[in-house]
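Late entry, evening session. Most of the bench is empty. Finally got around to the prediction I had been postponing all week. Sequence below, unchanged from the version circulated by S.P.
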Amino acid sequence: MRYVRYALENQQTWGMLLNDELIQPLTAAPYLNGIPQGAPVPLHAVTLLAPCQPGKIVAIGKNYLDHIAEFDSKKPETPIIFLKPSSAVLDPGAPIILPPSSVSSRVDHECELAVVISRRAANVKAEEAKQFILGYTALNDVTARDIQKQDGQWTRAKGFDTFAPVGPLVTDEVDPQNLKIRTRVNGKIRQDSTTANQIWPVYELIEFISACMTLMPGDVVATGTPSGVGPIQPKDIVEISIEGIGVLRNPVIAGG
């Protein structure tokens, strides 16, 4: 099942894709028990929005050994957690807005498999984590790399508006630990890996995170990026593709 959130005639709503042409409207988000309502609408008539409205984005740093190596860093003993604000969420196809050069002179792409939570999750064990997952999506953990180095922590560098493009959302049965994941910039491959290379797999991450903070319906867990992160510039087109999920595509523009 593929869920979407969309705008039609100045209204935003949820739906599920019936095929490549039609969307069945829902009464609410699927993680809020939305049910079908009304007649299907044509896909070409709507504007697709980010497929979730998270209260928080819980992201994981340094979860691929090759990414750790490219920054000459050390493997952490436990997962590194940081938060991206919900205000950073960006719709598919909408532009990533770079900060002025006086604020940041280097902004990087980071492709990530992300998890959308279906129900309240606190102190969840790894073997039970699947029951708390609505589905999977792609997320671009856009990062102002120079600010990250300057600050010594990651909130400001990763928290700018538009720095969390996300979509599409798939609830089909997929193996989150065996998915090819790639970034293309202007058609050229920058990142090319598989989630099998993660240090901590998805279910273990949910156990670790939910032991210290409660995950709520609609929250997003971003599971880290492989090597190959690199800068993006105005007029670039960034595409994050994940096997079995789809492609997240966003242009890049300069900010004011």
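Two things to note before I forget:
The helical segments are 65-70, 145-151, 155-158, 202-210.
The first strand starts at residue 2 and ends at 8.
Will write this up properly tomorrow.
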